[in-house]
Amino acid sequence: MNAFRHLDDRLMLAVNSFARHTPWLHGAVLDFATYGVVLFALLLLAGLVISRHRCSRLLAASGWAAVATVLAVALNQPLGRLVAEGRPYAAHPELLRLASRTSDFSFPSDHAVMAGAAAVALLLVSRRLGLIAVVLAVLMAFARVYIAAHYPWDVMAGLVLGAGVSALGWLVLRRPLTALTAWLRVQPGLRLAFRPAALAT
How far from the centroid of its chain's Cα atoms is residue 59's Cα? Predict the structure, then answer.
């Protein structure tokens, strides 16, 4: 465990050294690390839009993508309190810190959990949207370490946790969610907006 922690610290310090030598990146990375969640929300919305006239399974997957993202972050909250890991800048005051100080715990990263969940769920809806989300998820994980808000292990664990919630949840729930979606889309209030393409003409 000590060897793993040593490696985690070394990776974090390497990224922080890179941050010290790239001041021209600070503003953009900090903005993305803080507000990049909006891009994931837009991708989730795009997934719903492109699947609304397609088969019920894809429409269900787009709905699950949003639910899984919120669910993954909700599940992460008690885990963070259980582990109770402090932020890296608290243990390493010499770090260049771009992140605002917070009382939240560091492990796992909420942002990485959100990104991992959204990326995997969107792969179920659209390969193109999913791949865009995967790239953004990796960038989000890096950005959270770059600004010294998290250790590398925090973001890697967050990505895995978020991805696991999306993938396992869909594996278990895809049939009832697809059936529920097929029923909902023929209800009077939703029929026009979500009817399959074959019936939309």
Answer: 20
Q: Is residue 196 part of a domain?
A: no
- Please tell me the total number of residues recorded for the chain in this structure: 201
> Residue 27: what residue type?
G
Is 198 part of any domain?
no
For residue 196, give the amino acid letter.
P
Assigned domain for 165 exists: yes
Whole-number Cα distances in Å, 76 to 22, 71, 102, 107, 129: 32, 9, 17, 9, 24
Cβ proximity of 87 and 102 under 8 Å: yes
Dump strand ranges (E) for 74-139. none
Start-to-end CA distance of the chain, whole Å, equals 62
Tens-digit pLDDT profile for residues 47-89: 988 887 777 788 889 889 999 999 999 999 888 788 778 788 8
- Average pLDDT, stretch 149-155? 91
CA 51/CA 196 separation, integer angstroms: 9
Going by pLDDT thresholds of 50, 70 and 90, the confidence category of residue 200 is very low
Domain count, the chain: 1
pTM of the model: 0.86
Residue 4 is assigned to a structural domain of this protein: no
CB atoms < 10 A from the CB of 78, how many? 9
Domain region containing 42: 29-186
Q: Is 74 exposed, middle or buried (0-12, 13-18, 19+ CB in 10 A)?
A: exposed
**Residue indicated by tokens 């008690």:** 78
pLDDT of residue 89: 83
